[in-house]
Amino acid sequence: TLDGFDHYMLKEIYEQPVAIRNAMRGRLDDQNATAIFGGLNLTPQQLRSVDRIILTGCGTSWHSALVGEYLLEEFARIPVEVEYASELRYRNPPIDPGTLVFGITQSGETADTLAALVETKRKGHRTLAINNVVGSSIAQAADGGVYLHAGPEIGVASTKAYTSQCCTLAMLALYFGRLRHLSYEAGQTYIKNLRLLPAAVEQSLSCDVQVRQIAEKYQSASTFLYLGRQYNFPTALEGALKLKEISYIHAEGYPAAEMKHGPIALVDTDTPSVFIVPRGTTYEKVIANMEEVKARGGPIIAVTCQANPAIDDLADDVIRVPAIPEYLQPIVSVVPLQLLAYHVALLRGCDVDKPRNLAKSVTVE
Ligand code: F6R
Question: 248: Cβ–Cβ under 8 A, 6 or more apart, which residues?
Fold first, then answer.
């Protein structure tokens, strides 16, 4: 049921604080400063010997894989590759024996993701699923895995499954980190930060009314750019995908610094750029990218954390989300982008829960 919401997508956006809490329930081990996963079906020795990880999936799940890559490389120091499942299944890449393959999927029924897992498993690699739907084909095909516990996702555009996937990957990074070099103390801090997530996501929902006004302003645009860096580069891709799939407006997500290698040619007074610029290592550099857009008359929407006069000057609209450590920020920063896509699509009269040409699970290749 819709529980008083106008659409499933909106309901599922609002369910995110609870979904994230459910993804973490019973999985944070304070005693050992690590995460606990019941269904990996691999011994600590087998997991300790993993020296390479492949994360594969499609669409939004592929975006959460990108967030996972940053997390696992930073905290577990394991080299990670992110592969489109549709490419991996036919590409026949050399894979080392110590490689663990994760299939990331909301539905657990995506044909390409299933085929990529089955193919890598056939070659003798260990495969795990990060999956929402219990008992799905992919969950059955993998050696083990982690369920998201996000509850049913009905809207075709994935929202709560995405943030739950990112949260699950953050817990996996902690887990693999603690099997290796990550200290007890660092593990404790990491857990403390994970616990900040539900409230931070809850608070980020309060931008809804403001985002609706921004959507009214830009509903007739024919192209949007989404720009972010580091942990928020995948957020830019995800924001662009949400907008294009439900509002049918062309949108591109880019790492902000890549802008000057091409996409900046698209900037004009009718093309809004959405900058995801929360804080962190490349903060000043993204602000410099904003200046370049501003100099060409491009409207700017900024998603950021704290008040910053430079951003307030440059941006036409500033959406503030709560500050949280950089590596968890994508889970918070994506929320206004989900809402922006929702409101723009609604204003344009689109069927937000059932966009044209799309199916909830893509069971054909
Ligand atoms: C986008 C969207 C799709 C799915 C993709 C993979 O909002 O929903 O891009 O993410 O089709 O689906 P799952 O995660 O079920 O494998």
Answer: 348, 350, 355, 356
* Ligand 1 centre distance from Cα of residue 151 (Å): 15
Ligand 1 atom closest to Cα of residue 361: 15
Q: How far is the CA of 58 from the centre of ligand 1 (A)?
A: 6
Report pLDDT digits (tens) over 138-160.
999 999 999 999 999 999 999 99
Provide residues with CB under 6 Å of ligand 1.
57-61, 105-107, 110, 113, 157-158, 241, 245, 361-362
Record the pTM.
Answer: 0.97
Catalytically active residues are 360
What is the rounded CA–CA span in Å between residue 173 and residue 79? Answer: 12
d(CA 325, CA 344): 30
**Tell me, what's the pLDDT at 110?**
97
CA of 110 from ligand 1 middle (Å) equals 8
Q: Yes or no: say if 343 and 335 are a contact pair by the CB < 8 Å rule.
A: no
Which of 8, 62, 107, 136, when mutated, tests ligand 1's pocket best, judged by the most ligand atoms within 8 Å of its CB?
A: 107
Task: Give 266-287 pLDDT, tens digit per residue.
Answer: 999 999 999 999 987 888 899 9
For 308-364, give the DSSP string: -HHHHHH-SEEEE-----GGGHHHHHHHHHHHHHHHHHHHTT--TTS-TT--SS---
Dihedral pair phi/psi, residue 147, rounded to 5°: -90, 145
pLDDT digits (tens, 9 = 90+) for 204-232: 999 999 999 999 999 999 999 999 999 99
The 3-class SS string of 123-161 reads: CCCEEEEEECCCCCHHHHHCCEEEECCCCCCCCCCCCHH
* pLDDT given at position 106: 98
Distance 158 CA to ligand 1 centre (A): 6
- Under 8 Å between Cβ of 65 and 106: no
Residue 228, classed as helix, strand or coil, is: strand
Q: pLDDT grade, residue 301 (50/70/90)?
A: very high
Single-letter amino acid, residue 264? I
Angstrom distance (rounded) from CA 71 to CA 83: 16
Ligand 1 atom, smallest distance to 58 CA: 6
d(CA 247, CA 102) in angstroms, rounded, equals 31
**Where does residue 108 fall: left (phi above 0), alpha (psi -120 to 50 degrees), or beta otherwise?**
left
